[in-house]
Amino acid sequence: MGKADFLSPKAISNRIKSKGLQKLRWYCQMCQKQCRDENGFKCHCMSESHQRQLLLASEDPTKFMDYFSDEFKSDFVELLRRRFGTKRVHNNIVYNEYISDREHVHMNSTQWETLTDFTKWLGREGLCKVDETPKGWYVQYIDRDPETIRRQEEQARKKKQELDDEERSARFIEEQVRRGRDSKETDETPVYTELKRENEEEKGLDFLLVSLRIFVLFVSLKVINSVLGASALKTAAASSTKRKDTSFGSDSRAEKKKKSALEEIIEMEEKKKKKQQSVRTDYWLQPNIVVKVVTKRLGEKYHKKKAVVTEVRENYTAVVRMIDSGDKLKLDQNHVETVIPAPGKKVLIVNGPYRDTEALLEGIDEKHFCATLTLDSGQHKGKRVDVAYEDFSKLA
User: Which of 186, 257, 323, 324 is the most exposed place for a label (fewest CB within 10 A)?
Assistant: First the structure.
């Protein structure tokens, strides 16, 4: 076998010796060559190729140092971002993983003499958050990727929107209460004053007018009696007697008739209530509505969190998607409740005579546990109705 043969004992021995990391002081960064011992490094420094590299570096040493520094910084930061993300980690742990690559750029060829200087430089440039502790320096990568920033802003906006809906509803109720109190305070109470006549002659004049009217009425009655005569009086008396005889029967029939009408009204109201009760069902789940998880069996991660109903199975079971995490869960109707949005939002009526009807939330009546809705679809579009809290929910 020749000396350069790949399977020769010498070649195999050289490969075994070159495994793993070698000593840094026997590494030439300009030639990117690692020597195994001092004699090999001395021979390399005397070689023609090394001398040519030194001549190139001597022409513009700053250019080569900046190049190696930039390579070292880029590889180090990329490893920190990919391996540890935004976690806080000791700088030596990152550096040990970085130098495990045999082809890495050595620090002695960069502008930084020590790892501490490099860590401080990362903090000054704003690439990482650095802090010194008794155990050494810790670094934390700052993620400035536009996609990551956009995702974080979107999550913050969703969270803020949910809080704004609840706060807006609370502020609306507080504003209504405040306006009611202000209107009561500003209403002017009526002032009652004593009637005072400026002229005493007015009192006497009023008395004369009343007396004159009584006299005219008395004269007219006397004239009528004289014209009609005794026959008219007899006829009137007979009719009055007959009227008295029939008055008791007519009063009883009228009272009976009035009672019948009242009973009819009561029966109509009872029929209306029975009809509404027959329209109501014991299931209310609908797709594309927002619900709130109220069960604690799933843990604090999902308790009191909102979700969107994506599918309803067998009327009483729903497949929901959590708004925060995106997780999909299968829940029973008893494990969720309806969500009341802020006034002005769209809702879906899930139970009662207007079931499956979209509506617009106008106001909330906390005293009677209901809300005023304006129907936005169906044959009753535009109608305002009062619906209980459990009979409508926010649309997704």
Answer: 186
Tokens at 386, concatenated: 């009062």
More confident residue, 339 or 253: 339
Instruction: Give the domain extent around 294.
Output: 283-338
Q: Which pLDDT value is given to residue 248?
A: 47
Q: Which of the 8 DSSP states describes residue 336?
A: E
As a whole number of angstroms, the distance between CA 9 and CA 3 comes to: 9
Q: What six digits make up the tokens of 189?
A: 């109470």
| 127-142 confidence digits (pLDDT tens) | 889 999 999 999 998 8
**What is the DSSP-derived secondary structure letter of residue 65?**
H
Q: Return the beta strands (E) in the chain as ranges.
A: 27-28, 33-34, 88-90, 128-133, 136-141, 290-293, 306-313, 317-322, 328-332, 336-338, 346-349, 357-365, 370-375, 384-388, 392-394
Q: What does the pLDDT average to over 22-44?
A: 74
In order, the DSSP letters of 176-243 are HHHHHHHHHHHSPPP-------S-THHHHHHHHHHHHHHHHHHHHHHHHHHHHHHHHHHHHHHHHHHH
* Helices 48-59 & 61-84 angle (0-180, nearest 10): 100
Q: Is residue 194 part of a domain?
A: no
In this prediction, residue 346 has a pLDDT band, given cuts at 50, 70 and 90, of very high
Q: CATH number, domain at 299?
A: 2.30.30.140
Burial class (CB in 10 A: 0-12, 13-18, 19+), 105: buried
pLDDT of res. 204: 56
pLDDT reported for residue 19:
62
Q: DSSP code of 37?
A: S
Q: Which of 87, 117, 141 is the last residue of a domain?
A: 141
Can you tell me the distance from the alpha carbon of 169 to that of 166, in angstroms, rounded to the nearest whole number? 5
Residue 344 within any structural domain of the chain: yes
Q: What is the DSSP letter of 106?
A: P
Q: How many domains does the chain have?
A: 3
CATH number of the domain at 358, please: 2.30.30.30
Q: Check residue 85 and give left, alpha or beta (phi > 0: left; psi -120 to 50: alpha).
A: left
pLDDT attached to residue 256: 45
- Both tokens of 254, joined, read 């009228």
Average pLDDT over residues 356-369: 90
